[in-house]
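Below: protein 1.
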Amino acid sequence: MKLQSRWLTLAVVSTALFLIVIDMTVLYTALPSLAQALHTTASEKLWILNAYSLVMAGLMPAMGALGDRQGHRLVFISGMIVFGLASVIAAFAPTADILIVARALLAIGGAAMMPATIAIVRTTFQDPKELAFAIGIWASVASGGAAVGPLLGGALLEHFWWGSVFLINVPIIVIATLLAWWLVPRKDGDASITIDLHSCWQSMLGIVAAAYGIKELANPDSHALLAWGSLLIGVITLAAFARRQLRLPRPLIDFRLLSTTPIAIGILIALVASMTLIGFELVLSQRLQLVLGQSPLEAGAFVLPISLGSFVAGPFAGALIGRIGCARVIAAGLAMCALGMWAYLVLNDANTWAQVISLALCGVGIGSSLTASSTLVMSNVSEDRAGMAGSVEGVAYEFGAGFGVTIFGSLMTAIYVAHVRGSGIETMAGSSLDDAHRYVQNHAQAQPILQGAMQAFEAAFNTVSSVVIATLLALATLVLLLSLKWGKSQKPMLT
């Protein structure tokens, strides 16, 4: 493929990837407006967010295998068409239930697109240096796009209704589809690859049931038997899924890939990095609007430094990998992200520029880590298994994002409810700060209730942020220790 065509192809798949990751976070700033318009419950809000990531994680293994069988070009273009149609349905959804269904349809399109993006990059770039740089750009889009979502949502809400955050996808996806039809090279898939439908429903059921169980366990008003039962079903189903994959000659997810240490480390980093990043962005966006009183646009702009840091870091990290190794870049990036989050907590009463720098530092760290993790995965897999590897990494990223929202959102709810109960304002403050704001709107003399609810939210925010920081530092330490171990063993792909 000609040089110009290669980079144009990268631009097309990056555009599609950008839309996929934006839709994970674009609702963060739109959520308060959406909740008011559709009269959503706290549970419905979480499912509006979670349906996208969790369904995508459940379907991505099948879509990765489908791409390997039918050719990634066909699956990629089909996914974009589904994504565009689902965006229209979501934009005009009259109820929370229909919006949740539309988000699931968006996930189907995204699940078809995401493994194909990294697989197309892997097959388009043959030169190792070009591949590392291209993956750096891909990872920058993957990490940075998530932070652009809140800004885009805020900007649109300044002038339009909440449905515009979905409708904006349509013209972009139409142009990208036409360009993909022209630019992405046709390459036959492997017709011998079979898609195990039994594995498909196992992965979907296991992920959704586990997420539901975790969410309900954090809800003090939920039925304990239902919550624990759902979690148990999820864990058992996922265990059965993993066992089945190890026995199949053509598995949906080849867990044998994880026997290669660099790939295993890369997948782990994608999982934890996306979980912590998405979880932190969710609680930060809510704090900026509900506690500090920022508009959706202001909140989105405040989070933008994370995106800018990620975009800048990706290509530079790709170049740095050749000098110091993937593992050291990962460890340094995770530690830098943790430092940025800690600095924000310490400086949240300082001037704006200090907070901006701390969030930018967080973005640089996460962008560097994801670039290095993707390089580890794709550099240690053969071309004919690029789709499989891409789907495994994509599952890790989306699974992490979904569970980041579930775990950290549920933890926020649990801590918030515990604090308002201790203050004796549970009836008025509800299970979220949104509930407290709605109560105050209808009761003019209830301002002290709102102040107490805000204090409860701040306590929850600080706790969740501290958990995220501790997770990042623990993982950075683990990866660094592994890099030292393999450095002595002269493992070049790690060190």
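Below: protein 2.
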Amino acid sequence: MSVTVNIVRAGVFLDSVVLMQISRELTAIQGVEDAALMMATPANWDILSDAGLLEEDTRAGPGDLLVAVRAQDRAIADLTLQRAAELMERPAQQNSTPRELRPLTLRSACRQLPDANLALISVPGDFAGAEARKALRAGLNVMIFSDNVALAEEISLKREARDLGLVVMGPDCGTAIIDGVPLAFANVVPRGDIAIVGASGTGMQEVSCLIAHAGEGISHAIGVGGRDLTEAVGAISTLTALDWLERDVATQHIVLISKPPAPSVVDQITEFIRRSSKSYTVCLVGSDNLALPDNAKLTTTLKDAAATAVTNSKGLEALPAVQRAPVAGSYVRGLYSGGTLAAEAQVVFLSHGQPVLSNAPVPGARLFTSERTNHIMIDLGDDRFTRGRPHPMIDPAVRDEPICAALSDPDVGAVLLDVVIGFGAHPDPAGHLAGLLDRHGRSGSVVIASVTGTDEDPQVRAKQVSVLERAGVVVAPSNADAAELALAGLKIG
């Protein structure tokens, strides 16, 4: 009979990425059925309860860290808790030197680093606003990695930042490259004269990596958070970022990435671009209806955005095309870790007149419910799939069950996957996928993937591609190319 054990670490906080990585390692232990490390906020408490990971007498507050393990027996549970304690100490020990600064408060950090101009906030969402406000009032720009920050708080922070001549990136900003330094989920790309402003983390990663593959580089990549271009927020951070880049001598071309923004926001951005001295690529994934000034080009896919930016910057050729891959079945299943990558695949299918369903449909696509007889693109990084579990970029096992289901479906001719590497991502997502395919088999389905990353990333893109190809996966040079490849196969299959 299974045993569930909880340990509460009062007043202990660890970054959410670290917690998800530790959870992943614990669940890999033989005899462990499930494991999770979370701050005991009300929302996380509900997640743990739904997963059956709470003991009846466990008590904890939102500022406490809860370690929960369900194992085959008590001995395994106790050993797992011991391992959790060891892993929680690891972040503080890694790369430590006698000179490493480990301030306990924002104030002490500012004293130790008086020239710093950016604070990265990664605390529970309920507390992120207060810490971000302290940083702003200390004269620091802010990147808020934390999610679950109230919309009203976001608006208040961004208005205050604007008044102070600063910027707030986020909340829920997972990707940035500032002056060549990757932050959070980001890739190692060369320095160059192309800047990116984006309301999409994986979208920024895809575009920056494709630009790198084409031989160019990035000056800055500024994430603004997924809500910045809504009518409520009014593109406050986007306009601030564009203004900075307008004055940045290292930036010659600017790429703006977003899902279709609110009409009032479109007007503001269009007017800013009209007055700008620089060239622009505007990528609105899911919309091709926008009138832009002569110094800007509109694209609907991330691949085209990267190719256009490179062409505008240095006159290089567009990114390479792909060859056809025959597909036996009638339908394609896209199972994505990146929401914008899932959106881009939908755009490609719709552009060819192919109906498509999704849990996050772009304009023209339909909401997926239970229908199976159609092309389906699922964003598995959506909160509903990661409740109590790591994001699939951190733990690719989150996708195992739907991948196996798709491979077993005789109507599915191709399975589309994104493999996102870089800082914060799983150390070997290709190896995990190859092992899954080896164990399960494919029943005639072709697996088509793209790898978002560079050879300078810790996982090394070329190695990831090689592992996938040896496992029989068809690897396309971009996410859009992978979708085109599946469609080409359908047309001749």
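The chain has a mean pLDDT of 89.
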